[in-house]
Amino acid sequence: xxxxxxxxxxxxxxxxxxxxxxxxxxxxxxxxxxxxxxxxxxxxxxxxxxxxxxxxxxxxxxxxxxxxxxxxxxxxxxxxxxxxxxxxxxxxxxxxxxxxxxxxxxxxxxxxxxxxxxxxxxxxxxxxxxxxxxxxxxxxxxxxxxxxxxxxxxxxxxxxxxxxxxxxxxxxxxxxxxxxxxxxxxxxxxxxxxxxxxxxxxxxxxxxxxxxxxxxxxxxxxxxxxxxxxxxxxxxxxxxxxxxxxxx
Length: 248
Ligand code: HPA
Known about the structure:
248 residues, alpha/beta, 5-stranded mixed beta barrel, 7 helices, globular, binds hypoxanthine
């Protein structure tokens, strides 16, 4: 059986999966790191592949950008295809001064302006979106083994890339701070647009989820990693994700 969004049959997708947003990143991961790779879907050019990493079956599925697109793929991966370990490998915008361009950030927790948590719990509670601790611990250990420094903490997952959080000053009545400054004061490291859905759907399905990101741009300094340099930092993060995905 396949779905309207994914051409794979049940059994084509491994229990361990990496989730980049960009289909060409999925292709790059499959071609660079996996062996015996098979393309199982190209519906909408959103590619998904299964291959082996160090002899263990691993898939890589592109998700598109933002919570709605991401949620369609990930809901089906968990509920139709039986995927058990899901690791997002994405990019993020740095917000905190301790987070530098090209750093690898791991989301221990996710704060969000999206209504998805409210849609599930109806406002009864503010459910905490957290990483699976087992995957988080393994990722930190693997990063150390690979000599890749990581920053672990809380991130914000937003619904709007072009939000006005950084230029609406004084919305908290003190005439000074933008929402972004307040988020940083409360320890938010970086911004991206999908991981709230990963942690919510993983919790709902009783499976393991973790979000890793490279800092592609910085909201404080307005620096950006040039496109030709993005692959190197991206690959360091992918190695951490793959080593973590194949452990038991
Ligand atoms: N904002 C939201 N998502 C992102 C960003 C950003 O600046 N950079 C990479 N993903």
